[in-house]
Amino acid sequence: MFRSSFAAALAAATLVCGVGARAQNVVLYGLVDVSGSHSRLLGGVDSHWQLDSGNMSRSFIGFRGAEDLGGGLRAVFKLESYVRVDTGQSGNTNTDTFWGRDANVGLSGAFGTTVLGRNVTPLYLTTINFNPFGESFGFSPSTRQYFAAAVLGDRRWNNSLSYTNNPKDPLRVHFVVNTPEETGASTGRNSGLSVAYITGPFAATLAAEQIKNSALPLPSGFERQTVIQAGATYDFKLVRLYGQVGRVNTEATIDSRTVLYQLGAAVPIQNSIILIAYGRSQTRTDSSRITDQTFSLSYDYFLSKNTDVYVAALYEKSFNVTSGNSLAGGLRLRF
Fold first, then answer.
1. 182 band by pLDDT with thresholds 50, 70 and 90
2. Please, are residues 207 and 229 in contact by the beta-carbon 8 Å criterion?
3. N or C, which end of the chain has less CB nearby within 10 Å?
4. Which residues have a Cβ under 8 Å from the Cβ of 310 and sit 6 or more positions away?
5. Paired sense of beta strands 171-178 and 112-120, if any
6. Are β-strands 112-120 and 103-109 bridged in parallel, bridged antiparallel, or unpaired?
7. What's this model's pTM, rounded to 2 decimal places?
8. pLDDT (tens digit, 9 = 90+) per residue, 5-59?
9. Which domains are assigned to the chain?
10. Helices and strands of the chain, counted as H and E runs
């Protein structure tokens, strides 16, 4: 299934390149990340060895392109598919669509970029850009606590419109809104906004999101979920520091409130970098309180600009359940 779909996509991209070679520019790119790990899940009993794909960065393959329309205006598109390198399957899970990462088309110019399709949310981008482990679902406390636990909306929204202003501006604005066309529960449209100030070694961001529909399961009596997050980072040359704080409110049959904190650092040493992070989330309802704490540490050595090897460890603990841990060593290649 994956081979035939990829072959068709590659043939289509090749045809586009051949027909409009003078006017269009199509690029093939992606990332491959594979690691071996020994881990025990939070609340689990037994630990086990396994081969993982995307432990540090999600493996994917993509096409992007642009056509010059004149007057500074360009038509742009992007098609990206996650890949499970350990099995050769597409998607992060068996329920993912083939182009499940990004799939959009739109216009770009001096006003910024506006695209329609399946788009990444502002909250997900601020979460992965303002913590040292980025999008690592294996080792980033922030990414795990927000998008594997607290946030009900997917990292990307179907049937959405996305706008970003000119990336040369020090004040970056990113806005996404979707229509409630999901087959699951829906009480309206989703909307997300982030504003980031980036200048020299300092960057800060504020993101807000309201979720009313999702491709993911929603709790009983769900009405809406609102999320607000602030983040900052500063590069001191010898070390880059990261910080995040956020709050997630869920209105459903059982209302809940989650407060999240994250502190991290990245220490460059010649061709390598040490990453350290601590994250804490606490979810409260009228009858319960659950606190999760996660510690992560990794050493990453760059063999070249695009290829690195890493060793990473994680320790996670939560109230009244067995702690979880993971130790992995892997190889990551960008192309």
1. low
2. yes
3. N
4. 35, 56, 298, 299, 300, 301, 328, 329, 330, 331, 332
5. unpaired
6. antiparallel
7. 0.90
8. 444 444 444 444 444 444 678 999 999 999 999 999 887 778 889 999 999 999 9
9. 2-334 (2.40.160.10)
10. 3, 18
